[in-house]
Amino acid sequence: MKHKQIKPFPDNFLWGASTSAYQVEGAWNEDGKGPSVIDMRDNYPAGTTDFKVASDHYHRYKEDIALFAEMGLKAYRFSIAWTRIYPNGTGERNEKGIEFYHHLINELMKYNIEPIVTMYHFDLPYALQQQGGWSNRATIDAFEQYAKTLFECFGDRVKYWLTINEQNMMILHGDAIGTVDPNLENPKKALYQQNHHMFVAQAKAMILCHKMLPNAKIGPAPNIVSIYPASSKPEDILAADNYAAIRNWLYLDAAVYGRYHPIAWSYLEEKGYEPIIEDGDMEILASAKPDFIAFNYYTSQTVAASNGDESDIGHTGDQHITVGEPGVYKGVANPNLKKNEFGWEIDPVGFRTTCREIYSRYNLPLLVTENGLGAFDKLEDGDVVNDFYRIDFLRDHIKQLQLAITDGVEIFGYCPWSAIDLISTHQGCSKRYGFIYVNRTEDDLKDLRRIRKQSFYWYKEVIASNGSKL
Ligand code: BG6
């Protein structure tokens, strides 16, 4: 649709930026923090750093938040490390960890920056993992207890809560993220059982949030993207429909409607992956309602009809991420899209389409919790980082966001990834996303000093003009 007049961004639009605890904080074993599955990982790709120091945000949060305020951020989306609050995932609380987030949230309040809290961003406590992790129903109770503590401690200041970051990516690409237990006997069946337990845990957290904090809002935060058919061939369109059900709607239907999406369920049955659902689980899912849908968007995906064999499994971009499943859909590249330095396709129009699809299906307000460009930024003489490619990427996406708003989609915030440089999930710290450069390399921590990139100054103008100066 070509509009005669483009609508402005709403007043009070939450211009923000995002991070996650394990990727930015460092201090992995300080002040009583317990180890998470990420800390215990031993499969870092060659030449990439671990997460022990990361961007040292734990010690430098005041300086970082002052920079966020200078950029004009209206919101900051960050995650709380479960293992700072409960070093063993459950049991004894760690007051020092609670204190850290009190300070961090108070610092944000000082500058009128709205805290948006992700409760769990890939970093499951290792102690829980040792007892089966999400395969064990006890993890549901541990998550509920953790959620209760978060609401009790921070609910007086935090209005926006996100339950689980990218549950769908943990299930579909757990090997890339490092959250899948390599010793599982039938990994996929076990993963879908874990998935079910996460659905129940998420529903319980939403119910509890509404009970304890009637003025707060809570929602899921999956990675949702439009799935294109490779051609107008009906078989390709059917394959895209399969993949959309398995990748996107399975997760949002469970969160919003409290049901298993019928096509996704028939896929689970067909493959023998259907989870055990205990009495009462579906009632819990059905009685939990999110207030909004948060989602992460980096690029669309394209699939073709399945050949019915291993040739279906392809790399659409990132060599670490495979897409395709025999008999269901075949992952293919989209020849119409350019790629970034890491092979990820760039599709701003797909961002608009994704917003429209989600809103049409669920009719809930949307919050963008991630979108951004990973790149090998270069620090030049005089502390300059000319990341004009990032500005182009973000500008193109924000334009499409505004078109989605003009199309009638209700979107109340945009939090690109990432507020400051941090460690990528599986590609080290040389893959940078931030508005603020952190002076370190994979193997040399240097002085970790903060440097404003060109995109910092640009985003500041975008926010100051409420999106009218792109
Ligand atoms: C999302 C995650 O999958 O994408 C983030 O929520 C992650 O944790 C981001 O960093 C970018 O991916 P990557 O692999 O480039 O770090």
Short précis:
By secondary structure, this protein is α/β, with parallel strands linked by helices.
Strand order of the largest sheet: 5-4-3-2-1-14-13-7
What CATH calls the topology is TIM Barrel
Assembly type of the chains comes to single chain
Residue windows where pLDDT falls under 50 for at least 5 positions: none
Structural notes for this entry:
This protein is an alpha/beta fold and 470 residues long. The chain has one domain: TIM Barrel (Alpha-Beta Barrel), CATH 3.20.20. The protein is 39% helix and 14% strand. It has helices spanning 21-24, 57-71, 82-85, 95-110, 126-130, 138-154, 167-172, 174-177, 187-212, 234-256, 262-271, 281-287, 348-362, 388-407, 454-464, and strands spanning 14-18, 75-79, 114-120, 160-165, 217-221, 227-229, 293-296, 301-304, 324-325, 329-332, 338-339, 345-346, 366-370, 411-414, 436-438, 450-452. It has an eight-stranded parallel β-sheet with strand order 5-4-3-2-1-14-13-7. The chain has a four-stranded mixed β-sheet with strand order 6-8-10-9, covered by helices on one side. A hairpin with a 3-residue loop joins strand 9 and strand 10 (329-332). The radius of gyration is 21 Å and the shape is globular. The mean pLDDT is 95. It binds 6-O-phosphono-beta-D-glucopyranose. 6-O-phosphono-beta-D-glucopyranose (BG6) binds at residues 20, 23, 165-166, 169, 223, 296, 370, 374, 417, 424-427, 431.
